[in-house]
Write a structure and sequence with these properties.
The structure holds two protein chains of two kinds. Chain A is of the alpha+beta class. Chain A is built from 25 helices and 23 strands. Chain A has a domain at about 260-625: Beta-lactamase. Helices cover about 35% and strands about 20% of the residues of chain A. Chain B is an all-alpha fold. Chain B has 14 helices and two strands, in the order ααααββαααααααααα. Classes of the chains: A alpha+beta, B mainly alpha.
Chain lengths: ~625, ~375
Amino acid sequence: MDSRVRIKDHWNEQRIFASRTLGAVVVIAVLVLTLIGRLTYLQVLRHDYYSDLSQGNRVRLDPIPASRGLIFDRNGKVMADNEPAYQLELIREQVPDLNDTLKRLTALHLIDRDELDDTRRMIMSRRSFDSVPVRLRLSDEEIGTFAVHRYQFPGVDLATRQTRHYPYGQLAVHALGYVSAISVQDLEHIDRVTYAGTTLIGKLGIESTYERPLHGKNGYREILVNAQGRSVQREGAFSSELRSQAPIAGDDLVLSIDLAAQQAAEDALADHRGAVVAIDPSNGDVIALASKPGFDPAAFARGLSRTEYAALADDIDKPLFNRALRGTYPSGSTIKPVIALAGMTYRAVDPSRQEFCAGVFRLPHSIHEYREGKGGKHGYVDLEHAIAKSCDVYFYGLASNIGAEHLAEFMTPFGYGALTGIDIGGEKPGLLPSPEWKQKTLKQVWFPGDTVSFGVGQGYLLVTPLQLAHVAAVLAERGKSFRPRLVTGVRDLEGNVKPIAPAALPGIDNIGTDAWDLVLHGMIGATTYGTAAAISKGASYTIAGKTGTAQVFTVAQNEKYVEKNVAERLRDHAWFIAFAPAEAPRIAIAVLVENGGFGASAAAPIARKVMDAYLLHVATSPAAEIAVPESQASD
Amino acid sequence: MIEDFGYARTRRTLSSTAKLLSALNLDGPLLVGLGFLALYGLAILYSASGQSVDTIVRTLIRLALGAAAMLALTHASPNFLRRISPWVYVVGVMLLLVVELTGVIGKGAQRWLNLGVVRFQPSEVMKLAVPMLAAWYLHDRPLPPDWRAMLILAVIIFLPAGLVAMQPDLGTAALISASGALLVLMAGLSLRIIIGLLLLAVGGAVAGWHFLHDYQRERVLTFLNPQTDPLGAGYHIIQSQIALGSGGVFGKGWMHGSQAQLQFLPERSTDFIFAVVGEEFGLIGLLGLLALYLFIIARSVWLAMQTNDTFSRLLALSLALTFFVYVFINAGMVSGLLPVVGVPLPLVSYGGTSVVTLLAGFGILMGLYSHRKLVGS
């Protein structure tokens, strides 16, 4: 224990105070300098960095979507445009009594009773000053209903949004494609900045292939926001300068489609599954491109429910399948004009020599019988009559004489087995078989019988309706051809159309004029005295055509194909290719009717209607009258 | 003659002001410093509160209350203050216990005592009561304090500080501890003990980690790395640094600070008002504010040095230095040097009873100065 008594020493205390106060002053000085150093670091050295952060805090970019480019047919008729869709939006903080408001909206049938709880939950999950859509796409009637009662609903209002509108409904849907909401997959290959504010993106056809020019350039508006994200008019006492950039609308596209011809094609196909492709042989412009059944593109723009989409995808008739570009079928007898040209070019035939058709063909040293497709016999026929009457027996022999290698080589420049290069995606190349191909792919040797079948377009050969339309165009122009295309020009904002030049393909120049003449006469014969004689009835122009019937299943030996005994979906596909007027062709066409039976009866009349519509402007049913109003179409 | 007359009148006016001040026991320079600070505070508060006149009126009322307390306390003699120190302390601790108990009954943070008309924070009283009792205890004892005195001082300081920390109000607890600790330091605590205590404090911090509330731990963690939780606990620190940094040297102008005006800066008119000054008046504005504070502190220290009894000197120095601690903790927290603890910027931040307590403290300080024994005269 310290027993000493310490007494206060005032002088000592004075010294302690003085030294400690000095120490405190030093510590204060050090701390203040530290603080000033920190402030200088933040406010001088890092000023630019924090200024950017502050700017990012207070200014939000509000994108203004550019309006999507319009699509016109060749005559300037609007095929796709934009229209405002009305939706009902609600701002929670402006609604006096949310539950009561929702109840009254339900009573007016503006909100579905079943969706009431979901709607309320959605409203509550958003910020109180957000405008929340409570009902999308109101009908005219519903807009009227709400307009009358609007004064009873403070905080609820109509809002418009641009959506895609197809004035002709399903017409040409497989050429136009459709737009729909940007999906997660889309986001992976688009520039999110460019698409900020955009809700719809092209998914198929023109809408997809020409997405870039159609989309345009979105604008933006800077808006001042506070920490809650609420848009405010001013910060503090003064307003501040905010920038904005107007959107630039997308380019308008002019298509080669002729709406009247397109309408005629789709009307004529009616309820059949099938496709029609018509091309202007002088430049490759696609006059009509139809695939049936189709679907309503407006439904995609609106948004399909899972079940709606499943119904389309699972439909046995495959409405989403573009038969014109992607359907591959045996060509049937439509191949015969080309075989005839090959025969004459390789001097494998004397065109004027009469061959005897007894309805059956046999290869030397073989007992296998190749029968006349339709049955019956043609007697003595020369090459021209063999084309016109579509004599299989004649062409069995002709193909055998030419040989498979020569056939494949000769047919390649016509576009068989290759993409035509049309300016919309999804096209299939079909298949042009050759001995080499068979060895490589099937590991089998090419049998002489394969060549026999090839002569009448059966066997391995597969073509698309677009390819056959192209072949018809090549036949029409005697070897000259163009890449098929849908878009012929781009119209800028001032309305000036910038035309796109047609793309010529390498010509075929190894065929003599005599050969072309003979085939032309054979094809004219087909529509006058031959297989499709019925379609020329009453026509004011000459049609050169060729029917075809593609077998879906093979008839066994010694059996006869009887149409009515075969189930509908196993019936043969009907083909018809043609061009007209035969002397100066303006349209080349291919028609396919799935399971239509014979080309002459099922496909040829459809081609006639399209040609009438295009060449004579005979409207079977004017497109304008058929046009379905959007509101009905979406029901 | 005319010039002469004017000169004489000026002198007469000055001397009559001085007479009035000395009659009221007030210190002129300190009063002027406090006045400018209050005006600066009101100007920035008007901007930070989103141009709320109501806030200004309420602050003026608090300033008036504080001024009244200051005027009253300047008349208290050191002896009177010393005599009442134990009673002030005991009553304060009892009030803290009452708050603690009602806090148990209610839920969450309980800092207020509702006296019907006035709501009142007993912890504020302790900011004055702790240094008063510590000075009272050391007044008759030889300095520097021995171990036994240290132990008793520790109890005097940490009993109320602990109670406040349990409320939980770490900021005020830190300030109470600081006011007591500074006083002990001024009393001549040896450097070896100071270093030892610092080591102990580090150990205590590590141990104390386990006793912190989750939100307090989070504050410390996000102070160490605010980017880990930019929208949660780190939000305060990030936004206040953006406000300061974007203010630059000259600031965005009065009422033009987008961080403050658009409410990105949380607690903009209370704990984070320092960032509003930095955003709207820039580094210049902050240096001006710091200069005002340093002037007030320097004058206070000078006044404390003029007193000549132990009680007065210790109490006055403690009050002056605690004021600095206030400023530094707030500025350090807002600029990201220190963790976020709820310490307001003295005489500028809106709300609380701290304005009254602070001005009362300056009243005591001026009183101690004006009642000093003039040795040798």
